[in-house]
């Protein structure tokens, strides 16, 4: 080894580039991973596309939280989108297209030609892109950088509807018309008795194989196995049905979930702990924390929490059905009504007066809640959710049973697993009527020896064990850190 080689070897420092897809849930999750890596002494650059970076810094405590880490920095890449662009599920492909057209070539240029000044101060040794950014795997190979993908949708969806999508297409299972939705899908190992057509990722219902979402996911299915590893937000027991099968395709899987509780535990045992007032959230939007005092006034496990996350929408008719169902269940409710989540013109005069009256008595409505703290509050006894993966695993970690009303992508799979595999809730997919909602809410919350609440409790205990010092998720995080160090040497 000559002197230059020796110098290079000794001066290379582990430097991870994290690049999430620009949506609330994935960015929130990726920031938690970033903070855990910073705490392990690894240098981290967090790359956001511009339209999400602005609101993230403006509306949240994120900048002050991360300014405590000298080994952390943010960077941005243009996406050509307006700042603060209101996003709903319908806008998903618009954002992904913008990333593809604007961000992708710039990102490649930055990584391959080294024109990225801030990055080139310290070479990237390991890239952790969202698994959905298949182009990042190509760029990593071209730039000679190791790559570990981070999948923020659920492993059950990733397995059944992403990694197996080429097989499903080849077998003629996908696409299918909107009929015979109860037919079992028998081509996916591990879930032969669980998943019906209606439970596959929502994009499988498209009758067009050139649907851009299908194309995006087929690309992902081909690129992820080429990476050196795959990070999943789950714990071993929770996904024991599918993980052995996934490992045949992607042998190096790090299960580090529930990521938010692992993150919270590591931060509270660290001297740089943030104040309890702001919590541990990286929510891109401002949270209304007054609902926590409203919850304080209620008895344990009496309140139903209603939220459809950051992208899902509902029509006024669906809103009224769900609203009636919740009110008729007689449970006090905390409801997140994200601005823009009701499709069309929301006009209060269209809402029956009795609903508005009853809401004043037993309801609390906010624009955006500190959801992790809400689910951890003792007053919460149930969660009516759109079954986004973050919401689902946050509910699992707190032992809160769920009524699932999935909207799109992985939510159709998650809601099926909640009901049929984890047995901790009711899947209402493809229906929306007040009688069913009322029955489901009562079903998960009434009576002390409620089976849903019992399973939820069991899963919460297992989740808790997984993040203990010797638990599987802690071990996998330790292994990830060791592997990053080894890949960087
Ligand atoms: N969330 C929040 N406040 C709310 C509603 C949601 O902080 O009022 C957070 C929630 O804790 C979760 C994320 O937003 O971490 C939603 O992610 P999920 O995967 O459940 O759904 P998505 O928004 O991606 O559809």
TrEMBL record:
It holds the Pfam family UDPGT. Keywords: Glycosyltransferase, Transferase. Its EC number is 2.4.1.-. One of its GO terms (molecular function) is quercetin 7-O-glucosyltransferase activity. CDD domains: GT1_Gtf-like. Belongs to the UDP-glycosyltransferase family. This is Glycosyltransferase. It comes from Tagetes erecta (African marigold).
